[in-house]
Amino acid sequence: MSLNWKDLKTVEKRVWLAVLVAALGYFVDIYDLLLFSIVRVQSLQDLGFSGDELLAKGVLLINIQMAGLLVGGVLWGILGDRRGRLSVLFGSIIMYSAANLLNGFVQNIEQYAILRFIAGVGLAGELGAGITLISELLPKKVRGFGTTAVASIGILGAVFGAFMGDIFNWRTAYIIGGVMGFAILLLRVGVTESGMFEKAKETAKSRGNFLLLFATRERLVKFVSCIVIGFPIWYVVGILLTFAPEFGVAMGMSTLPTGGSAVMYGYIGLSLGDLSSGLLSQWLQSRRKSILLFIGVTVVAVVAHLFFPHSTTFTFYATCLFMGFGVGYWAMFVQVAAEQFGTNIRSTVTTSVPNFVRGAVIPLTASFEWGAPTYGVISTTVVIGLVTLAITLMGLYALAESFHKDLDYHE
């Protein structure tokens, strides 16, 4: 079991540039994606909402953003297989940067909703295109290192977003995100397209055909399994971190935690988890074993978070960090999706899978909003968590190990 450090020295500088661009793009992607969770209360209060409306309108806007991610996940994925990985990588950055820049100037909930949808569509493309590109550029022995680097750097965008949300007005925080996205476009020069994609353009009979995923039972099971193994990640982020103030009330805390701080500590843990899970998968030479271990950590962390008596926000945020570490296999789960399918539909899968997972926030938050008033915040969260865990384990069991898989083939 070797970490293959020597193999890293053989990778060309142009490939590491692609890794850097994907990592910085993901940094801004996560910043923009989580910024609403961070400034939810402040922004909605500024627009005239209060009390129960903060939860109801917050759920509405999160779901609209996630709906955009679902649409964009399919759209950008298909374009990535038909037009190229680079066109999607930079096209998606342009779209979400423009939307988030304009978010700083909204005057009502309708404008807010439209721009969150457009931002969601844009945010859907960056990670899948980036992971697809570097998975095809890096040698198979070390491609996990590239994904780990993208995740570990990118996830810190949420931490930066939390700082910006605390330091600046919510409008300024959105504008900063937009400006950062446009700045990344300056790195476009020097990033090369995937050789596997260029080869597929000449030899593949069909590229970016989403219906190919439904052509056989085996392919459909693989696709669905790739999606459901990511459910715990957004169970933690979409419910446990985003609605931290509501959990503080349910736990009887005298000083309530904030969503921004919960997201910040959760994503510090996520960044550490992504680094650890990626290195662990290289050491074990197994994606499945590493993911299974981190799912186990997540279960322990969620139980500690929900049932530990939080007398101060310190312990609350500590368990947020612990939960974040547990679900720190986000980039590896996207890597698994990239490794399960052929070059002609790899971008379609790798871009759509994480966004279907993000879209799972819609039924998760809807279930939470429906059950919490009647059955209580904690009980509802436990039931949702148990269902999520069962589905995730079934999906992981159905997937074949892909660590050593050669990716240069067509479906």
Question: How would you describe this structure to a colleague?
Answer:
The protein is mainly alpha-helical and 411 residues long. It has a single domain (9-188, 214-398), classed as MFS general substrate transporter like domains (Growth Hormone, Chain: A, Up-down Bundle). 78% of the residues lie in helices and 0% in strands. The longest helix has 34 residues, at 13-46. The protein is globular. The mean pLDDT is 88.
List descriptors.
single chain; 411 residues; mainly alpha; Growth Hormone, Chain: A
CATH first level: Mainly Alpha
Structural class: mainly alpha
Q: What is the CATH homologous superfamily assignment?
A: MFS general substrate transporter like domains
Order of helices and strands: HHHHHHHHHHHHHHHHHHH
Instruction: Tell me the radius of gyration.
Output: 20 Å
Number of strands: 0
**Stretches where pLDDT falls below 50 for ≥5 residues?**
none
Q: What is the CA-CA span between the terminal residues?
A: 31 Å
Quaternary organization:
single chain
Instruction: Provide the number of structural domains.
Output: 1
Q: Any idea what the shape is?
A: globular
Summed over residues and divided by their number, the pLDDT gives a mean of 88
Please give the largest β-sheet. Answer: none
What is the CATH architecture annotation? Up-down Bundle
Secondary structure tally, helices? 19
The share of residues in extended strands comes to under 5%
Amount of helix: over 70%
